[in-house]
Specification:
2 copies of one chain form a homodimer. Chain A has 247 residues and is α+β, with helices and mostly antiparallel strands. Chain A contains 7 helices and 11 strands. In chain A, the strands form 3 sheets. Chain A has a 6-stranded antiparallel beta sheet with strand order 5-6-7-10-9-8. Chain A is elongated. Chain A binds a DNA duplex (19 and 19 nucleotides) through helix 3.
DNA sequence: TAGTGGTCTAGACCACGGG
DNA sequence: CCGTGGTCTAGACCACTAT
């Protein structure tokens, strides 16, 4: 059974997607829709609010609601912890800690993170393996002020990303995706050629305005990609474009 | 002025972000919150529904609402039309049409697009320049069945992406981001070195189950990146991680 | 079975902003 | 001004599910 506001949402969505209602076109006002669907205005409002939140319509007081002219072209990327991702895909994940060192933030990293020079940090480097093949290098900085428990954590059994997600309840985050050429060290670790195109995900996470962690995860370009659906609900995606991050 | 449901939303968001309410912890039921905020249950419900939609809480009938244990780690990437993006960033955008040809879908592309062999297509290739420097190569296939108007469009004054967005009201889309090494032709066009790491965005768009267009946009890795905020509402992002796609 | 969320109503007042 | 959306109320019934 679908609720009334869901039905209204889908009906209007369909009208827009099919081109029945053109961009810029004004759609019926709440009272009219309420009459059409024989429901209260609040129910209509719930559907229209959801449509507006998705960017499919634009709502203006006094003027009315309009089919969005500016086609929103954004995509939701699932950026999962590597171990979780590998598990979900049915692959075996393993990792090796290459470095674990307590340091103080130097000038260059301080500028990068926008945190004060000299702050105590835990610097980690580890190699992730999927089905026994190197899949990613993780270079991470954890701010010890923000996550004091990390000081005594060896990450021997739980990968840093997973551990942090469990420790730090919530955060703001910023993601950047870049393409870079593998330098000598990276190539050696990933068992690929020097100069090979790599996909790097940079993620900085904050809590209450303070950096929790900063991480660069570098994947070999020939074995990794990011994929995102425009509509999270969409399931009927062709296999050939399906996520293949763990191949 | 912030509305009551906004205040409730923010209060709970803060409690979760600060760690005051731990993951898995049960939060007050709707009636209790309604009493606390001296508002109706519907108002509380609106706030909690929004929190649930963002994945910050999980709601279960009879059991109650709980702080989400599985930290969602997804990001919203704005994937804009290059010309629009450049304009927004205050850069000058130009493009050159390198190829425009009506063909029939060959076996390899048909498999890639999951469309029938022999379907009529418009194949485009163009070079995008930002501030006079090559910024991207766009290789595009437009299905003429889905967009018959494209047959007579020269794209002399409007870039294909922009034109299509105006023509095709809405669609499902699939995005893939890859790192690839520049081949000879790509390197020449982008005025970079052969083998240089490039960031490729692949986008396939559907309408009513039929492919509208398939495009590969390849950017030089040293001049481009994708960036996304975890929270779309978040504005206080450090400059050094800000979008620099048009630099 | 009883507690909780999901949905809905038939009003209401107000803020905004186009005419 | 006054039409439209934004918000809110004080109930109500129902579906689900933990106990």
């Amino acid at each position: 059974m679908v609720s009334i506001h869901q039905k209204i949402f889908r009906d209007i969505e369909t009208k827009i997607m099919s081109g029945d209602w053109q961009p810029g076109q004004r759609i019926p006002i709440e009272h009219e829709l309420a009459a059409e669907y024989r429901c209260s205005r609040m129910t209509v409002n719930k559907a229209l609010s959801a449509l507006a939140e998705r960017g499919m319509i634009v709502r203006r007081r006094k003027a009315g609601s309009f089919v969005a002219t500016q086609q929103i072209d954004r995509t939701v990327m699932d950026i999962q912890d590597i171990s979780t991702e590998a598990e979900l895909a049915g692959y075996e994940h393993d990792y090796r800690m290459l470095m674990r060192r307590i340091e103080r933030l130097d000038a260059s990293d301080a500028a990068l993170l926008r945190e004060p020079v000299g702050a105590e940090i835990l610097r980690l480097q580890c190699l992730h393996l999927v089905d026994g093949k190197p899949n990613a290098i993780e270079r991470r900085i954890i701010m010890l002020d923000a996550v004091p428990l990390a000081r005594d954590e060896t990450f021997a059994s739980v990968p840093p990303a997973k551990w942090l997600l469990e420790q730090v309840p919530w955060s703001k985050a910023r993601h950047v995706i870049r393409a870079v050429s593998a330098d000598a060290a990276t190539a050696r670790l990933l068992e690929t050629e020097r100069g090979e195109a790599c996909l790097t995900l940079i993620r900085q996470t904050w809590q209450n305005g303070h950096t929790v962690t900063y991480v660069e995860i570098t994947h070999p370009g020939d074995r990794f990609q990011f994929a995102g659906d425009f509509q999270p609900a969409e399931k009927e995606v062709p296999d050939h474009l399906a996520r293949r991050s763990a191949t």
